[in-house]
TrEMBL record:
Cellular localization per UniProt: Cell membrane
First-listed, main subcellular location of the protein, grouped into a coarse class: membrane
Protein's name in the database: Polysaccharide biosynthesis protein
Membrane topology: Multi-pass membrane protein
Residue ranges crossing the lipid bilayer per the database entry: 21-42, 62-81, 102-122, 134-156, 177-198, 204-222, 250-270, 304-323, 343-364, 376-401, 413-432, 438-456, 471-491, 503-526
Superkingdom per UniProt: Bacteria
UniProt keywords, alphabetically: Cell membrane, Membrane, Transmembrane, Transmembrane helix
């Protein structure tokens, strides 16, 4: 009986850790993504008719930069988080500190090397567009700093301390966006300079943001230094690991993180280096039109769906150290429960968010990007929103596989998904044009997701009745939310049409706000009324029910 109570208390503490960590990471990630999307409204206005060309250039430079950034980070932050959680669970905090210091050497080294490769290799990676070269040069500076910043975030996450990561992430985005907007306005509107120069400064903003984020993390580290020293002094100190073994441990954990962390970016690079050539065969569109079409699906839609995908990313970061802790203790039931919790929490947030964005795709697209290519842009955004569930799911379940030290298996399944993406890329683009890359990406992630979930279920039996029941209810509530939001879009367009231009930015903003509030309220009400929310947010759901007078 006593053992049963201790187990229940342990489960509650673990879930509490997960929820607290998820709250911080979700808040930081969402606020950062929203900032990273909202800047587009003034940015696009200041570029005017050159916006699609500017955005296509921005995206092409950023995709290559993202790949170099992932390589330079080398998966070390997530690997550090996993290993720190592992040794902390054994009360070996001294090794955790040594891991961080060894990781710093790696992060600084890889940052310098990758920054040099990106800077001097830019002419080889421009995809025939020389305007991309100065953009890559400006981005190489950020590659110097971000690996160290990301490593420090991973160290904090290993202690289940998510606040420093979330706050630094927000600060990084805030300063990046401020620099982007100030320089874009000055170059395009004050001095009427080159749009290529304006885009280059917008990408250099990544360096400005990374400096701000690193300073925030440094302040948190100094603030918590005494606490960490206290933990080290009271460690068991029974395990002795030499420096070479620590490096080997970090690298062996990091390499799979590179591939899996770059999953979405790898698919985007496949699109970047194949879309233009395939479309030149299929159509007689000039390069200016192809740039606009590329910007619509790879830039415009992607920026918005990453807001919802970031929710899943936040969850993935939280799940890894908790699963690692259960894996270290060889608690198979605990692993199964954590996996089930992760699936439900992912579904609870991601599915309604994705379907909600699908419902408001038309006015949301007009709000951010104006009326250019409006019908196509809205349809692309709606489709991207639906398949973003597959992208977000991959982010979560690949992290789960890493948390239980099945990195190689996860990489193998991702490779199968990438092969499927490549096989379907040409026929899908030839048949469906701008939708083609999205369809082939959906097929690729569907293959990878399906294989990983089947493996997890086979090993740990994650498909419990309780989990499936809750996910089914979440799906039903999400569909109801979608219908309500869509109805309010039509209602909003009608009402706004009586007062102002319904398809302008102001009118579209009103319609989006109305639909989001209506749909969001319906979803929250249904989740609280059915008690599904209790499983996800615990005792806080009872407080919400009382405030909203829900019985």
């Amino acid at each position: 009986m006593q053992e049963s109570k201790e187990k229940i208390n342990s489960d509650r503490q673990t879930q509490s850790k997960m929820l607290k960590g998820s709250s911080w990471m979700t808040a930081g990630s969402i606020l950062s993504r929203i900032l990273g999307a909202i800047y587009i409204i003034p940015w696009s206005i200041w570029f005017g008719n050159l916006y699609f060309q500017a955005n296509a250039l921005y995206v092409q430079g950023y995709n290559v930069y993202s790949m170099f950034l992932i390589i330079s980070i080398a998966g070390v932050p997530s690997a550090i988080a996993k290993e720190v959680a592992h040794y902390n669970a054994l009360n070996e905090y001294g090794i955790s500190v040594r891991l961080y210091k060894r990781g710093l050497v790696l992060s600084v080294t890889t940052g310098i090397l990758c920054a040099l490769f990106l800077y001097f290799g830019a002419p080889l990676l421009d995809n025939g567009n020389p305007n991309v070269i100065p953009v890559m040069h400006s981005l190489s500076w950020a590659v110097l700093i971000i690996p160290t910043m990301s490593l420090t975030r991973g160290y904090f996450q290993g202690f289940q301390d998510m606040a420093p990561s979330a706050i630094s992430q927000f600060a990084e985005q805030l300063f990046r966006v401020i620099y982007m907007l100030v320089t874009a306005f000055f170059i395009m509107k004050v001095v009427h300079g080159s749009w290529i120069t304006a885009v280059t400064q917008s990408t250099f903003a990544a360096f400005i943001g990374s400096v701000a984020g690193l300073l925030i993390l440094g302040a948190y580290y100094l603030k918590r230094k005494d606490y960490y020293n206290h933990l080290v002094e009271n460690s068991n100190n029974k395990i002795h690991v030499n420096a070479n073994h620590l490096y080997k441990e970090i690298v062996s954990q990091a390499v799979p993180f590179i591939i899996l962390g770059a999953g979405i970016t790898i698919f985007q690079l496949i699109d970047q280096y194949t879309f233009f050539d395939i479309m030149k065969i299929a159509t007689d569109y000039p390069m200016s039109v192809l740039n606009k079409l590329y910007a619509i699906f790879a830039g415009n839609a992607n920026k918005l769906i990453m807001i919802t995908i970031s929710l899943a990313s936040a969850l993935a970061i939280t799940v890894v150290p908790l699963l690692s802790e259960a894996f270290t203790k060889k608690d198979k039931d605990g692993i199964s429960r954590q996996l089930s919790n992760g699936f439900v929490l992912f579904s609870f947030i991601m599915i309604p968010a994705a379907l909600g964005m699908t419902a408001v795709a038309g006015p949301l697209n007009r709000l951010f990007y104006g009326t250019g290519y409006n019908h196509l842009s809205a349809n692309i955004l709606a489709f991207s929103s639906v398949i973003s569930i597959l992208f977000g799911l991959f982010t979560v379940i690949s992290a789960m596989m890493q948390g239980i030290s099945q990195n190689k298996l996860a990489v193998k399944y991702f490779i199968y998904g990438t092969i499927a993406k490549i096989v379907f890329q040409i026929p899908m683009v030839l048949l469906f044009g701008t939708f083609g890359p999205l369809i082939s990406s959906a097929i690729g992630f569907l293959v990878a997701d399906g294989l990983i979930i089947r493996s997890l279920d086979k090993q740990f039996g994650v498909r419990s009745y309780e989990m499936l029941e809750k996910i089914n209810w979440i799906l039903i509530f999400s569909l109801v939310t979608y219908i309500v939001a869509l109805a309010f879009v039509y209602l909003g367009n009608t009402v706004v049409g009586l007062l102002m231009e319904p398809y302008g930015r102001v009118g579209s903003g009103f319609v989006v706000s109305l639909a989001v509030l209506a749909g969001g309220f319906v979803y929250v009400y249904l989740a609280l009324k059915s008690r599904v929310a209790d499983y996800v947010i615990g005792h806080q759901s009872e407080n919400l029910r009382n405030k909203l007078h829900i019985k």
